[in-house]
Amino acid sequence: MPQTSSGTISLRKFGRSDAKISALGFGGHHLGDAPDTKTAVEIIHQAVDGGITFYDNCWEYRRGKTEVWMGAGLKGRRDKVFLMTKTCPHGRDGSLALLMLEESLRRLQTDHLDLWQVHGMAFDNDAELFIRKGGAAEALEKAKKDGKVRFVGFTGHQNPKVHLAMLNTGFPFDAVQMPLNAFDANFRSFEQQVLPDLTKRGIAVLGMKPLNGHGDAIKHGVISAEEALRYAMSVPGVTTTITGIDSLEVLHQNLQIAQNFTPMTESEMNALRERCKPDAVDGRYELYKLSLKFDNPESRLAHGFPLDTQQSEVKDMLGAEMNTGHPFPEKQF
Amino acid sequence: MVASKLEWNRRSFIKGAAVLGAAPLIRGGSMAQQQSNQSQQVPEGQVPKKPLGKTGVQVSAMGLGGYHLGSAETDQAANEIVAKAIDHGVTFFDNAWEYHDGLSEERVGKALKGKRDQVFLMTKVCTHGRDKKVALRMLEESLRRLQTDHLDLWQIHEVVYDNDPDLIGAPNGVAEALVAAKQQGKVRFVGFTGHKDPEIHLKMLSHDFPFDTVQMPLNCCDATFRSFETHVLPEATRRGIAALGMKSLGGSGELVRHGAVTPEQGLRYAMSLPVATTISGVDTMQVLDQNLKVAVNFEPLAAAEMQALRDQCRFLASDGHLELFKMTTKYDGKVGREQHHFPTTQELPL
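The joint structure predicted for all components is written out below.
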């Protein structure tokens, strides 16, 4: 484990644009699991020094905590990074999406985003709700026109068909985010069904869930963290692989893999897919495709689905984790 | 028995809210009141019979769901529900090896004592990927609990995981158990069930196995969302396989509670489809009476009435939040989760 995290990670071209982003991206959700602001800031500082330029976040992660912490960590470093966050209308009006944008900018302590994405396209009617008159599509256009965001995109982890429906709206997306890992290849596969379409359209491909969200397959010994991350980063056409970082230890582990990264060969990738196949075909390690485990309360409420009190965002909503009797944030930033 | 009831988690969140028992939040609000006032007024007459596919057998147009009999307060309550249902012409009895860890089958076994020949008795086998030997052992257990020497229908339960069709059809798999049980005269007909995905049902049918029946969710919302009615029902009909409808109100009355339909609209819609029967869960006499009021002397809806109900539900149906069995793991049972290495209901409720 390196004591210093300085180094470089290869940069890749962001879709059709001239922008370049690091092949490994910093996942914002897990930052909320850091014990305090100070640790979170130190993680971000070392990540920037270590060569990660792509930073992921989202308006609804941990009730704003992760954006606030990332904003604090990027203070004075904003111009060194490519900053993304997501908006969470979940089918509701574009005007709501724009209010969320203002909040995100304030929390992240910046006047613009490099990439702004519509979060969590999950349900069969999401594309229709996105493109409708007054929907989130209009917010993306306006934010870009106003110079508040450079690029726009959407994300989702449920269903390749929902992604294809979003692409078929004809909206000019710059980026699309989706799960890419060695299990996906054999189960309702984004790699097979969505990625080729993105490459054809010149849209940047943002991979996520390289360790299947919570790393259960690694805990069960089906695959190692290094194999999993290398596979995701080696998928032909992927621009960056976003992975959640909640501690310096995880950061150092990821930096070591990314700084020394050489792509897997096609036969190595095939071998790994085959090895994972028996555990992939019923989706046991991709619960985000079969359950609402990874769907936030904002999304559930907007669509009328029940909440789950075990979810971190719901616990945050109820103030349980802060143990102050008040939901985060305790004070205005 | 109480302890084992609590261990069965598939529908633990809806305790006391079984299908029609849920107090419906309908415009006007007084539905629950109306229900209790009218609960004794089941009309004279019988639930009509319909042909079960090509089998030559007739079954009642409404079936009694076995899961909820295990939720009834006492054995005696279950006995009374079964007796009254039979008196009004219900002949189709649904069950499964895994319901309430056997309690549902035991209750039906007791309640049917002396009445076995008046009904068409079904239960389901719960191998969830395991082999023929496990299936045949479950069959013997089911027969013993149901106090009978044969089933009228034996179905493969809860085909909901993408690889289930492969596991079912594998050499020495459960499909071979269906054949063997039929040959041994222990079951008259065979089929399969599932609530998740029309594509999985179609994959099952594509293997050309001689299924007599196929059970699936059919309701006013299904027509709009990942539709069994649109994709599977015509294929079953084309193959001469009897379709058995279930989850006419969303599994736990979701369609009613969220104001999509009234219980009567929901049941009448499901029963008007080209199905042999509509299986509805009953855990109290009140629910039975409501069901019988719809089912006795039942006349199907006209095509235009059905379309109006589909249209009425379209907006609420389009993201699947009223059909949680398709969109979440809420309705996926304990045994299937174990066999597929999925988290438990406590760990992954939705």
